[in-house]
Amino acid sequence: MIKEQAPKISTGQVEHIAKLARIELTEKEKGKFSNELSSILNYVDKLNKVDTKNIKPIQQITGLESITRNDEAEKRNSETRNKILEQAPDKKDNYFKVPKILE
Q1: What's the whole-model pTM score?
Q2: Is residue 51 exposed (0-12), middle (13-18) or buried (19+ Cβ within 10 Å)?
Q3: How many CB atoms lie within 10 A of CB 14?
Q4: DSSP symbol at 61
Q5: How far apart are CA 32 and CA 87, in angstroms?
């Protein structure tokens, strides 16, 4: 029986992902993550091969209803807005000012 495996993630691909995530990795970590990511993709490949034709899709298994509120914008008066802005460490006009994170 031939064991099929998902394509191995190279250390070059790990380096690329780390660069996108703006993290630095040692050579040892690159090798470790290359193996771990390859293992994860291999597992996902196995899951994709499972026959689910006769399985009814479900969204959740508890039967409970969601208790979260609807995501709706609330109207605020200027007094409330000013109180919130007063707590900001840095602001410009009526907006929070945050450090630039993208180049």
Answers
A1: 0.51
A2: exposed
A3: 21
A4: S
A5: 43
